[in-house]
Specification:
heterotrimer; A alpha/beta (about 260); B alpha/beta (about 325); C alpha+beta (about 375); A: about 260 residues; alpha/beta; 6 helices; 13 strands; about 30% helix; C: about 375 residues; alpha+beta; 4-stranded mixed sheet; 4-stranded antiparallel sheet
Chain lengths: ~260, ~325, ~375
């Protein structure tokens, strides 16, 4: 089975102070740590598990510059057989339609049976890459999958719904499956994996040849800014014991709970 | 000009977000609002009745492929309706939901028209629709203009319309129509899957001690359990904790878990991503403990403690025990 | 001269960071309190290939260098020095075996370490022989085909856990040169006559095992001698030239971890209506700490990368080890100071880092010994 996985290299913003660049539309990325998008980690792990189970080969794709190659090397280290990186400066700050066009360009004429990607990215979170790629390839897609099993030329997936529900869907291959977090436990990278990765190829494709213009891509980022702050919490300060005493008083005031 | 609202329904009932979408559509003042109901045979009429008075027109399609949700069928049907409409919609609105995340990008691909997902606000600026989106884990907000295309698609984050404008009751006309869909859609609905019912119903608890990623490990949940025991509370959690298998799904507060409204909600190491926040923000009192003073949880919490939950929670446990004697 | 890590080195650094952050943090406090390192961590570290990174592949290692091992140690110590030392010291003594051991010994003792099946140790120090290793009195006498060993050893890392230990013994007391009286002998710890007692109550790196060893008529085959008889002193000097690189990485790791904590604290802690970070005195402090860390790191990476080219510059290595130790101690001290009263509470990790850092100035040559090494190269034997 020919399997592909798309991963994205995104800034880790969990503990970072974010600053907007002078253009008022983009993030100042300099100095921020970057890592593989959280959803993509699960997609990658799932791809490796499927490869191990049904056999075949796994190609990892990334739309990004050279620095982003780190995430591709991670793919190779945990089990991908080869990697493809496509980039052109025109893709910096690209919208989901442009990214999808680049993804389509990167896949080229290779026919993959199964393409996995994260259900969304932690930076912009559009969640459109997978379905748009599927449309561009003219194949099936299913989004927000938290369980899957390949069965011959079909794949049985569970889509995550609201309120603790799920729906089981059978999808014909080839298909693009967008993976939700929690579907598996992504592994750590091993030293042996890193060493093996060094011997695996990373093809670099020039994205300049990809036609990024589309009706859909007519999205213009007008501004990027800090969200308006609500009233926010009243902060309790002091030692843990002092803070605990304040909390206790609040719980008593709330009435009926203590 | 007109706006189409794609109605979400499950088991014969409209989902709450549908009413929000209708209000969103009306608030844009782009002309008549059409509610589009895609349903299985025999289901449409009852659903249409629920829309009555809330949209100028209801476009009703009943088709066997719509008996259960199928994103492909839905996108194909909407594309066919929009392209074949006498007066095509200027905007197609849907929910940023499990369904919307499936059909909306697919529809955008089919129609090749500008689309944004997960908008928290929409406005018309001149001839263009502008969407506000929350990005970078809730730390920044971005405004996106959907260019001057004939048609655009936007999905809206449920619960993001703060003050629902009271739409004046209108006369709703119902227009039944049909679409021709290919017999083989490439995917089939098999079954609903419900999480195994656990013995704990967190939505019934008066006090919840809820843990997030900051708890770091399964073993550390003891810290929350000790506090919960002292308070007579129940332990709940945010999504990453379930993803890591540290607590069962039945304990998850969030869109894909349970919505809760306890008297007191104590959030330990929870950043407050909207998927979580939206399901607990109506709690009577929210106390949040987090290391990051900029964590979004502090925007909805009543009281915030910037610090290490492993220090604060045991201190609070001790204080509660002492107070109770 | 390149000052950039290769992409492979960056990947190794990141892999170590992820593993440490993902697994150490949850154990760190308990490991410190209860003076142990959980078995599951030893297992995971071996499975992920962190044991024996610098062993050639034929001995089950990754065939990488000292620099790579230093990167791993630094990341481990940055997250938790106690667990970092526990996992990092699994290979302690292997450098000596790699350098002086026979092919047979290497094939026998090294692969089990990389597989997580064995833990190693090296024992020199005795109650009356610390920095002066020529004073070691543990006696090994050849009796037919066996060495018979009697004596005691003090402060032995992994003494209770090790499967085999390189023991520094007095074999030739009559040799006129006190530098040719000792030999290194490999001792399997399941042999009769071996016993180890855990030393409790260390100030820092409490997760790491330390023991007092007692050897009573312990017999090992003659072939357990490593290299030449009487070469023990020279062997251990060469050994320290290698292990001091690892120790320097520890000092930098603990300093970086403390700097991380201090940075987070001063950005979050509000006093007089502003975060501490807004105060110039605090800014200067952070700048000084960060500069110390970088300076020490540069020195170590240079010494380690030379070692990987086969150049063991013992002056440079001693400088790297001394500076890193001092950086560890100073930076954890400043970081604790920036935490104010909270830093003095056991609940705060910085308190543990402060205690952990000190060992780097003590073991594998005190800072005074390091300075002596440096001075001797510069001044000669004055």
């Amino acid at each position: 089975m020919k399997i592909a996985v798309f991963v994205k290299h995104v800034p880790d913003v969990a503990e970072a102070d974010l600053e907007v660049a002078a253009d008022g539309r983009t993030l100042k990325g300099a100095g921020l740590p970057f890592e593989m998008n959280e959803w993509d980690r699960f997609a990658l792990e799932e791809a490796v598990l499927i490869k191990d189970e049904v056999g075949g080969d796994l190609t990892a794709f990334l739309i990004g510059d050279e620095a982003a190659e780190e995430s591709l090397r991670r793919c190779l280290a945990v089990g991908a057989d080869r990697a493809v990186r496509l980039w052109d400066e025109a893709l910096s700050g690209a919208n989901p339609f442009e990214i999808a066009a680049a993804m389509r360009g990167a896949v080229g004429d290779d026919n993959y049976d199964l393409i996995l990607c994260g259900a969304q990215s932690s930076d912009y979170g559009y969640g459109m890459g997978g379905p748009l790629l599927a449309e561009a390839l003219g194949i099936n897609s299913v989004a927000l999958v938290n369980k899957m099993k390949v069965e011959g030329s079909k794949v049985l997936v569970t889509r995550e719904l609201e309120g603790g529900w799920g729906e089981e869907v059978e999808v014909n291959l080839p298909a693009v499956i967008s993976i939700q977090t929690g579907i598996n436990e992504p592994r750590y990278v091993s030293i042996l994996g890193i060493k093996k990765a060094r011997k695996k190829p990373i093809d670099v494709l020039d994205g300049a040849g990809v036609d990024l213009s589309s009706e859909g891509g007519k999205l213009v980022v007008e501004s990027l800014q800090a969200p308006p702050l609500g009233e926010g919490a009243e902060f309790l300060e002091g030692s843990p014991e002092e803070v605990a005493e304040r909390c206790l008083a609040l719980l008593k005031e709330a009435g009926g709970v203590l | 000009m007109s706006v189409w609202v794609v109605c979400e329904h499950r088991n014969g009932a409209l989902r709450e977000v549908t009413y929000e979408l209708l209000a969103h559509g009306a608030a844009l003042c782009m002309g008549a609002v059409t509610a589009v109901i895609l349903a299985g045979p025999g289901e449409g009429e009852a659903l249409a009745a629920l829309i009555n008075g809330k949209a100028e027109r209801t476009l009703l399609v009943e088709d066997p492929s719509m008996s259960a949700f199928n994103g492909t069928a839905q996108a194909l049907a909407l594309a066919s309706l929009a392209e074949g409409a006498q007066e095509p919609p200027k905007a197609i609105l849907g929910a940023h939901s499990a369904a919307g995340m499936d059909w909306a990008p697919t529809l955008a691909g089919k129609l090749s028209c500008p689309a944004v997902t997960d908008a928290v606000a929409l406005s018309m600026e001149g001839d263009s629709l502008t969407a506000t989106r929350v990005v970078y884990g809730g730390k920044l907000q971005s405004k996106i203009k959907l260019g001057g295309a004939k048609m655009v698609i936007a999905t809206i984050r449920p619960g993001s319309l703060e003050d629902e404008p009271k739409a004046a009751s209108v006369e709703t006309s119902i227009e039944a129509t049909s679409v021709s869909l290919p017999s083989e859609l490439g995917k089939r609905f098999i079954a609903w899957v419900e999480e195994a019912a656990g013995d704990v119903d967190i939505s019934q608890a008066d006090i919840l001690v809820s843990v997030g990623r900051g708890i770091q490990d399964k073993e550390n949940i003891d810290v929350a359990e000790a506090l919960a025991e002292a308070l007579g509370a129940t332990v709940s959690c945010s999504r990453p904790v379930v993803d890591m298998n540290w607590l069962p799904k039945e304990r998850q507060v969030g869109i894909s878990g349970k919505t809760v409204k306890p008297k007191v909600y104590i959030a330990l190491g929870i950043s407050g991503a909207f998927q979580h926040a939206t399901a607990m923000k109506d709690s009577a009192m929210i106390i949040a403990v987090n290391k990051d003073p900029k964590a979004p949880i502090f925007q909805i919490a009543h009281y915030g403690i910037v610090g290490d939950l492993f220090k604060v929670a045991p201190a609070l446990t001790a204080a509660v025990r002492a107070a109770k004697g | 001269m390149s000052f950039n890590l290769t992409s492979e080195q960056i990947d190794i650094q990141k892999a170590a960071r992820e593993f440490a952050r993902g697994e150490f943090t949850k154990w760190a406090r308990e490991a410190d309190e209860k003076e142990y390192c959980p078995e599951v961590l030893y297992k995971q570290a071996a499975e992920l290939g962190f044991q024996g990174i610098f062993f050639p592949e034929e001995y089950g290692g990754a065939g990488l260098g000292y620099l790579e091992f230093c990167l791993v140690i630094e990341e481990f110590w940055r997250v938790d020095p106690g667990i970092g030392q526990s996992l990092g010291s699994v290979v302690f003594g292997s450098d000596l075996l790699l350098t002086f051991g026979s092919e047979e010994q290497k094939k026998k003792y090294l692969p089990p370490i990389t597989e997580g099946e064995a833990i190693m140790a090296a024992a020199i120090t005795e109650a009356d022989a610390g920095s002066d290793v020529t004073a070691v009195a543990t006696r090994a006498v050849l009796d037919g085909d066996e060495w018979v060993i009697n004596g005691t050893k003090m402060f032995i890392t992994n003494g209770n856990l090790a499967d085999y230990i390189i023991l520094y013994c007095l074999t030739d007391p009559d040799n006129p040169s006190r530098h040719q009286r000792h030999s290194c002998i490999m001792v399997e710890t399941d042999r009769p006559g071996f016993s180890a007692n855990k030393i409790h109550g260390k100030m820092g790196i409490r997760a790491s095992d330390t023991a007092e060893l007692s050897l009573t008529d312990l017999r090992v085959p003659k072939e357990n001698l490593i290299g030449e008889r009487g070469e023990g002193f020279a062997q251990f000097m060469a050994f320290f030239n290698r292990t001091r690189l690892h120790i320097a990485a520890q000092g930098i790791g603990v300093a970086q971890g403390a700097l991380d904590m201090a940075t987070r604290h001063v950005k979050n802690r509000v006093q007089f209506g502003r975060p501490l970070a807004a105060l110039q005195a605090v800014q200067f402090k952070i700048a000084e700490m960060a500069t110390k860390v970088e300076a020490s790191r540069s020195l170590l990476y240079r010494a380690a990368s030379l070692a990987d080219q086969g150049i063991f510059d013992h002056k440079l290595i001693a400088m790297a080890k001394w500076t890193a130790g001092e950086t560890g101690v100073r930076v954890t001290d400043e970081a604790l100071q920036l935490h104010g009263g909270y830093g003095y509470l056991a609940e705060y990790d910085i308190e543990r880092f402060y205690r952990d850092a000190k060992i780097v100035e003590l073991y594998e040559g005190t800072k005074e010994v390091e300075k002596q090494v440096i001075a001797r190269v510069i001044l000669g034997k004055a």
